[in-house]
Amino acid sequence: MLGYYLQLGFRNLRRSPVLTALIILTLAVGVAASMSTLTVLYMMSGDPIPQKSSRLLTLKLDNYPLDFNDTDEKLPGILTWTDVRNLREDAKGLRRTGLYGISGIVYPNKEGVKNFFADGVAVDADFFAMMDAPFIAGGAWTAAEDRSEARVAVIAAPLAEKLFGKESAIGRNLRMDSEEFRVVGVLHDWKPTPKFYRMDGNSSAGSDADDIFIPLSTALAAHRDVSGNTSCYSNADPGFEGLMRSECIWLRYWVELGSEAERAEYRDYLSAYVQRQKQLGRLPRPDKSALYNVREWLQEIEVVDDDTRLQTWLAFGFLSVCLVNTIGLLLAKFTARTAEIGVRRALGATRSQIFLQYLSEAAALGLVGSIIGVAGAFGMLHLLAKQSPNLEQYARMDPTMLATTVLLSVLAAVIAGLLPTLRATQVVPALQLKSQ
Amino acid sequence: MEIRPILSALRHNLTGALLIATQVALTLAIISNSASVIRERLAVSQRDSGVDAESRILTQRPILFSQIDLANLIQTDLDALRAIPGVESVTVTNQVPMGRSGWSSTFATERVPTAPNQSAGLYFDGGRLLETFGLKLVEGRGFRDDEIVNIDPKVQNPPPTGVLLTRRLAEALFPGQSQFVGRVFYQGNTPDSEELRVIGVIERFTTPWAQTGPGNEYAVVFPARYLNPFNHYVVRAAPGAEAQVRKAMEEALEKNEPGRVSNGQYSIQEMRDRRYRGERALAWLLVSVTVFLLGVTASGIVGMASLWVNLRRKQIGVRRALGATRGDIVRYFLTENLIITSAGIAVGVLAAWGLNGVLMSELSVPRLPLDYLLSGVLLMLLLGVVAVLGPALRAAKLSPALATRSV
Question: Considering the domain boundaries, does residue B268 fall inside one?
């Protein structure tokens, strides 16, 4: 019976076409606005590495000078080389990596490709296994290569294609600035969203995929400049060696634990580490070190900014107006058919049958509205991505959101249809028949 | 006009009336808050940067890769740029206003850790910076060419101590003062902080980040060329010569070191557009939400009014037959709508304040100005009248003879 009612509902779309079009349009616009902003919010607050986000930790240390007076400010999530070196040497946890942004001019050894500027990161060999970065060829460099400061590199697939075309990139040389790197691995199109491992707050640096990965030890040995924030609160000696010796902060550190349970143990280790450094005369202020897993980290750096939340709020306000409007329009559409309902009731249809029939019609409207709404949401996302490069990585709809969108609009139509349908069931047949 | 019959008729159609009123209330709450956010964002994106002709100031940032004798290379580049016809002035600097990345440092008036310090953008003037950007001095003087020194980060010779700063920073550092030239302040507030002396005050010069807060006008300018490969060359093109200068600039920089990679060429106007893209995107999103909302609400009113006209055809006929004029019928529907809209507006004003309160505490949204709320109220009243006018006029055209048919 429900199938028949739905069929009837679709056929009835053609009755009072202006009203029908208005209802569908109102629903579609409301769905498009709310779902596109919700998609952005959902992608932003998504977990980029759900399988192990609770086991991947990063940390903050307070190495400000004792008399530093900006105490209200959040600690930045970057560390000194001294600390990163010590943490790496202590080798706690399952895997670990230090990390800092690099950039350089790439000299393609290929006709017709001009020199270009590429972004990358200097990491330790563990990085790829920690982040579950997928290789299409080759693999990570070895720990021995880390130690020997080998000139090796892992590159992203688009860069490999740009430099070497269809040929295999493994074993080929990549010239960046005045150095040659041997390519040992090519990463599949890997784009964790958000790019949690090197994002800090509102900087747009976190939006593009990294193209080149080289060993941290190699980058340091070559005095490769830092691409990203460097903060110094006490004087540093000149040059890169000065930076490495200084209390300037510029590196990130990630550690992967064997299980979530090891976190308490790691926390103890970190406190002990801070105490040991204090004995050496470093980290003079009270211990404010903190550990964050991936989800906590994304919250700490406020990936979801106020503007996105504002958009989402307003979009749902907009949807609510659209819903109220749909209720009114459905009321108008159904009221126009009071006489027909009277006849059906007089011929023996029960209230619940009328209820089911008219609710099916509302659902049919919702289904058509949802198709247009989904198309509209895609259009809106496209516009959002075009207007703000920071949003581009988030303005993508995945199957979950697509299903949610369709479900939401049908649900919205059914909810909007409840009141008008209840009204329809209350038609008194005798009154209607009399007036005809 | 008698209101009582309208009220009693409304009581029979309460659901519809409530729906319209709810819609009006929600719409008013959303659009008045949107309008205030739109105004705030657009105002931020139009702030004066101090640069006098943003579309004529072009910047390019070639990465200098032959890292030998950078001082000479930079001088050669500057000479080549200055020789371009249509170029009025040339400079080299470490960062540009609204360029979104750059240097900052903290400045204080005392070398004690408890002294308040201000974070400010740190510009290097490689010669003729004021002239090239068209910045205005309000006190003191700019740098002479012979004051500009080279700073080599590998050796790190300290920069000169005579500096320019922006008026806003001067006022923040020396509250209550109006003369700043000759005053001493420090880069940092620790005992070993560098001592600096003000030699000139710039009226306004925005930082690369152009923050939303007052810090966007805090900047200090040092007379120096910083010898790293990542400087910005800035040229000031004569009016009308922008296109030709752009091309010549690109070519000149390419010629001095073939195969150079450049991070693009932008006018300060384009830097502004990029910096404020987010603000503008949000503003336009809110504008479209507002327009759609008004459209949706208007369609709701039209739909409901049409329904009521249809349901009351007979009554209208009777009234007309009993002597009511067309004007009376139109007035009836207008008044009815005004009652519903006003009820919606009353609730909407409260909702707007409520929503604003929530948005203010949860998100960085400004307080809703009263005039925005009032404009919103007027707009909703107008919207109601315009929307109902169509159905009301149709009702007025109904023939009195209707009353005599189908009884």
Answer: no
